């Protein structure tokens, strides 16, 4: 019965994202789930965002005021929420039809889990599908190497979010990744093999325009949680520092210089566990494979359509697309689907 269903609260943080926001709003309001609360937290937009929001007055709640960034805005929304199940959908992402019903159905089947996450598609600025977001089955230990949970395709029980004290508002880029790590220390999550959302990738994202600080924040986060930074994160950071490729539209390009730099930098980050890192570093190298990858990736590397290889590498080592520098778009961390070894 409808009265037996839990209330779900969706929060959307936004700042100057009026050109994407209406599509996001419609994807929520068109959901077939009957008990839905929708809250939008605007950080004081100066574009057409408020005009868009006023069109939907009565169908959602919205608040507009300066805040402390994306994670702070999401926390403010959660604190206003009445739902037993919480989710947040950034201002340029969308739900696919039936996403909320699917999330609730799986959570009701499994009262022992704190949340679920499904599959999602990466889409470009115009909404064209670029590929599949590389999710994996839930494995807490794997979070040390990659963030395999797609944030817009996730739904979490309120009590679990409250138990870990919401999102870390001090983080600008890696707050999704941090949330999953903290939840995984206390609870179990479950991946469901159904497509629930789209995650928009475009060059205005902070993922691309803030790559260096995003990598650095992620490395600090991993050090804090695990006292260890795995080779894939170190190697990808070194690649970016040398060639500035975005590692999504522009494929990650291996080289001996990047490989040796990763040894030096990884040894510095992992001074507590140097032997462990050296073994991981050594396992990633094979000279013949390096030459093959260099040759393969030199062809068409500036094509703005990402190759499957580039998409995997980006997910493997990338801080997620939190938002453009002065705007609030997609969430924080996407991580490795598999280590990018030079083989």
Summarize this entry quickly:
By secondary structure, the protein is an alpha/beta fold.
Note down, in words, how this protein is organized.
This protein has 343 residues and is α/β, with parallel strands linked by helices. The protein has two domains: 2-200, Spore Coat Polysaccharide Biosynthesis Protein SpsA, Chain A (Alpha-Beta Complex); 206-317, no CATH class. It is 40% helix and 15% strand. It has helices at residues 18-29, 49-55, 70-80, 99-109, 158-163, 175-186, 206-209, 211-226, 231-243, 256-269, 274-283, 287-297, 308-317, and strands at residues 8-14, 36-42, 61-64, 85-88, 94-95, 115-123, 129-132, 154-157, 189-200. Strands 1, 2, 3, 4, 5, 6, 7, 8 and 9 form a nine-stranded mixed sheet that branches. β1, α1 and β2 (36-42) form a beta-alpha-beta unit. α1 (18-29) packs parallel to α2 and α8 packs antiparallel against α9 (231-243). The radius of gyration is 20 Å and the shape is globular. Residues 296-314, 316-327 and 329-343 have low confidence and may be disordered.
Q: What is the N-to-C order of secondary-structure elements (H for helix, E for strand)?
A: EHEHEHEEHEEEHHEHHHHHHH
Total separate domains: 2
- Please state the second-level CATH architecture of the largest domain: Alpha-Beta Complex
CATH class of the largest domain: Alpha Beta
Give the helix tally.
13
Structural class: alpha/beta
Portion in helices: 25-40%
What oligomeric state best describes the polypeptide chains here? single chain
How far is it from the N-terminal to the C-terminal residue, by CA? Answer: 55 Å
| The CATH topology of the largest domain | Spore Coat Polysaccharide Biosynthesis Protein SpsA, Chain A
Shape: globular
Radius of gyration: 20 Å
> Can you count the beta strands?
9
Average pLDDT rating:
85
Largest sheet: 9 strands, mixed
Q: Low-confidence segments, ≥5 residues, pLDDT <50?
A: 296-314, 316-327, 329-343
Kindly report the name of the CATH homologous superfamily of the largest domain: Spore Coat Polysaccharide Biosynthesis Protein SpsA, Chain A
Percentage beta strand: 15-25%
């Amino acid at each position: 019965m409808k009265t037996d269903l839990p209330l779900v609260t969706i929060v959307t943080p936004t700042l100057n994202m009026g050109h994407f926001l209406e599509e996001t709003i419609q994807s929520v309001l068109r959901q077939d789930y009957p008990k839905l609360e929708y809250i939008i937290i605007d950080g004081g937009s100066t574009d057409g965002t408020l005009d868009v929001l006023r069109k939907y007055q009565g169908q959602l709640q919205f608040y507009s005021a300066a805040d402390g960034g994306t994670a702070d805005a999401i926390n403010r929304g959660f604190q206003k929420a009445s739902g037993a199940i919480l989710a947040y959908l950034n201002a340029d992402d969308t739900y696919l039809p039936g996403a909320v019903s699917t999330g609730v159905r799986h959570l009701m089947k499994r009262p022992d889990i704190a949340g679920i996450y499904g599959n999602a598609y990466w889409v470009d600025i115009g909404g064209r599908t670029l590929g599949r977001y590389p999710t994996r089955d839930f494995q807490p230990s794997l979070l040390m190497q990659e963030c395999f949970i797609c944030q817009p395709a996730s739904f979490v029980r309120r009590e679990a979010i409250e138990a870990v004290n919401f999102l870390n508002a001090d983080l600008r880029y890696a707050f999704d990744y941090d949330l999953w790590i903290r939840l995984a220390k206390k609870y179990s999550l479950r991946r469901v093999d159904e497509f629930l959302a789209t995650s928009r990738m475009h060059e205005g994202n902070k993922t691309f325009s803030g790559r260096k600080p995003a990598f650095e924040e992620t490395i600090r986060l991993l050090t804090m949680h695990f006292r260890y930074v795995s080779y894939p994160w170190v190697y990808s950071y070194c690649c970016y520092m040398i060639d500035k490729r975005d590692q999504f539209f522009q494929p990650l390009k291996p080289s001996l210089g990047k490989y040796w730099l990763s040894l030096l930098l990884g040894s510095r980050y992992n001074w507590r566990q140097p032997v462990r890192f050296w073994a991981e570093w050594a396992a990633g190298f094979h000279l013949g494979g390096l030459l093959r990858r260099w040759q393969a990736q030199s062809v068409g590397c500036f094509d703005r359509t990402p190759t499957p290889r580039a998409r995997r590498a980006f997910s493997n080592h990338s801080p997620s697309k939190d938002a453009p520098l002065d705007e609030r778009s997609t969430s924080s961390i996407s991580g490795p689907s598999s280590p990018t070894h030079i083989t």
